[in-house]
Amino acid sequence: MVELLSPAGDFERLKIAYLYGADAVYVGGQDYSLRANAHNFSIDDLTEATKFAHKLNKKIYVTVNIVFHNDDIKDLEKYLIKLDEIGIDAIIVSDIYVMNLWKKNNLKMELHVSTQASSLNYETVKFYQSLGAKRIVLAREASKENIKKIKDETGADLECFIHGAMCTSISGRCVLSNYATNRDSNRGGCAQVCRFSFDIDGDNNTYSMTPKDLNMVPYIKEMIDIGVNSLKIEGRMRSIYYIATVIKTYRQIIDKIMNNSLTLEYSKYYLDILNRCANRDSTPQFFDKEPGVNEQYYLGREEVSNQDFLGLVLDYDEENQIATIEERNYFEVGTTVEFFGPKLDATTFKIEKIIDENEEEVTAARHPKEVLKIKCPIKLEKNDMMRLKIFDIKDYL
Amino acid sequence: MSVQEKKKTKFLVTINNIKDLEIYKKVGISTFVFALKDYSIGYENTFSYEEINNINDKKYVLINQVLDNKKIDNLKELLPKINADGFIFEDIGLINVFKELNINGNKILFMNHFNCNYESVNIWLNYVDSVFISNELTYDELKDITMKSNKEVVLHVFGYNQIMYSKRKLLSNYYKYNNLDIKLKNTIKDKASDIKFNVIEDDNGTVFLSNKIFNGSRLLDLDNVLYYYINTSFINTDDVISFINGNDIDNTDNGFLDTKTIYKLK
Predict the structure, then answer these.
(1) What is the tens place of the pLDDT at every residue in A138-150?
(2) CB-CB neighbors (< 8 A) of A293 in chain B
(3) Does domain B3-160+213-253 match CATH 3.30.2160.10?
(4) Which of A148, A261, A298, B236 would be A226's cystine partner, CB 3.0–4.6 Å?
(5) Whether ipTM exceeds 0.95
């Protein structure tokens, strides 16, 4: 069974990822991870997260994928042993020293080779297998033919990105950030210099090289068919709403592929939901062809933010049909919304009554994080989400 | 022989034009690097294996692309035909290929930006004859690594640094989108600062080069070095020779030799 692998920047996101259908989650510790400025997980957090994951029969992986300098290696061995004791299922690494420590200490957790190592051919994968790697996260530049041949020649567990932001460069082969901002990109300090706007050829022309996001909705079945073991979502810095939406959508796609019910109409609907959630255009990038003129932006960042995420369900009183919601964005009586959740497919509802924290009826929800009550006949559960209704599956069928 | 003359025997100099060989040999350089056509990227010129085989000097072949399956398979055919004293390579898949094909000569691993600590370097040295050390390190870090390496290593000492490598066509995409004539070499400048990068593109992708030439002459004092690497791409031979002779050159900086990079902002 193919694995759906989610990012999580903290415990709340991790919980949401599992609840919404991720089979496994990857997280960074407070050291040695490429998102050095995310909240990340302390050892205590990792212990708690691992217990939570295993209780659900799910997996947790920890990124230890910086390129280590001399000063970084002092406590690394102790850290790896600790991760193993906690029961982490795998570490994701790029530096050969980490692979060596894993082997030397005979650690139980699996060794996964990070996309930072840019594995793009079967000989490279065989080399990492010889060091003990169970799984290889392929370079984002891998085409369908490449992935298939690597699988056929090596039999390795393969993990491929299916959704999220792309590096402009081959991962790991970029130190623009070091040169432009003195922040070390290969130790988690990437300042995303490739998303800056530049002058070129004078005359105030704007040069931008930002790639559009990756989105593999049209090719998930092919990826499964050629033997990809794990489908990976990018974005450890993303919000709970993003994680819930993306994971839920890909969960539905995978499940529909498995029961042979994914149609073009559903694919189109899912694609629209994902694109709206990311606020950016997306393409399959390298999977089906060499990316060309249509796979990047030319005018700097082209993101239009939206306020679709309206609230998080904290509780539901089934007897009185009252949902307790933590507000995230403005909504009012009369707004047509939809609820979705781990066990709930998108269900439409028109807001009829809003009660504020003082038990007073209000016409609109104007204060993010305010806890409100709304009358709602749809049976909800804690951690369901409420969003603005934009797309209706009926319009696609 | 002076210290400078001794160091010249350890300079490893990339070649842009065959005619430059004589110029460099006259100043005491004896070991050269040729970027292999279709398998290297970011260099001013590349050479076919026939052209390389015709060179009678001590020579290394540079293969610095991240390779896909097709390129690896093609190289399995090509490598036995190449007559060289050694290979400098980026993709670790070639380690097994060299072994399987019994390819002679020194194997030097050049994973750009990687190999930033002595432990990793020493592990790689179990598989190859030498390793390029990253050029984004301080002098002290480089000194520590060279001192603790189990074999001699290679240090960059002169040239534009390759600082980004993409499989995308980042210049021609821009010009196509804007319906302009395509230029495959250009300089871009950040709109909000004075940061500049040189950009070059070919059929295999795009490489960004530093705006200034890296001058690591201080590194010539370090021991346990197999070669001091001089990347002459886009630099005139007079400037290269000035460096080799220990003279000052314009438009250079010393990269990160005195500047520690940071990664946690708190």
Answers:
(1) 999 999 999 999 9
(2) 173, 176-177
(3) no
(4) A148
(5) yes
